[in-house]
Specification:
The chain starts with a helix and ends in a 10-residue tail after the last helix. It is of the alpha/beta class. It has a five-stranded mixed β-sheet, with helices on both faces. It has a five-stranded mixed β-sheet with strand order 9-8-10-7-11. It has a two-stranded antiparallel sheet with strand order 1-2.
Amino acid sequence: MDKHPKANKIRTQDSLFSKRHFMTLKQLEAFYWAATCASFAVAASRLNISVSSLSKRISELEVSLGAELFNRTGRAASLTAAGQQLVPHARDLISHAGRFLALAKSNSALEGRCRFGAGELTGLTWLPRMLEKLQQAHPLLLVEPSVGVGQAIEERLADGDLDFALIAGPSTRTSISSQIIGQAEFIWVSRPDLPTSADLSKLQPENLVETVLISLPATAGTVRILDDWLADQHVSPGRLLPCENWGAIAGLIVQGLGVGFLPKAWAQSLVLRGLLVELPRFPALRPLQYTFQWRRDDNRALIEQCRLIASECIDFHAPVTLH
């Protein structure tokens, strides 16, 4: 007969308590990113694991907590009331763990997978140099850049599909942090023999009402400076010809299909070759600020290291593919 039933009961309760509330950082990360990314698939990709592994970690966490965190009855999982309540706490725990690991690995090379987005102009100029520096500093880091239109890249960043973005900014989303790292300048140009009723040397903004304006679409960062410029000049172009590719825009202008603006280094190169001329009576566009953007809840060492390297490399005059 046990002489200490009360002590045994206490030990049993302690054991159950420890078992029930035992959880791991990987389980918390799985829960948090599943809760804040666009889908389980995006969250799993971010953590570099399969969807089944992600679901398993979440299920293990639910067992540890004794509560369901996601409703799985519909086509897509949604947070339960308990899950919604725990998201900010999971964020804080992961944030503290991230700072701890960043301090512990401050002198270590980065490892794992790094996915980021960049605007096309970055891809045409200084992106190769940045990738080279990243690979030299962190040879074990698997870097996967994606080049596209700013708005689409920012949406992928907000959804958790990308680690950071190098695009025109700053972002207006409260979930995204932005830091200005540089700026790009642009020049108004046209073909030397552009058919127009006005002499090109005397062409002014008001002549845009009878001319085609070639530019990036409204989803691109340049729309910010173009809209301001048009408002300042009190003009509206007779016709807009939007195109998503800087190379195609340059080709359309060279072909004489309209006027437009190009990145300064590219424009000057084409002017020197006699393919384009500057429009001297067109006031300059204001420079377009470019930012390093990341999710506000992401404080990994990866983000800070990549931000520093991007700040060192940004140069929109870099002659990688402009000539």
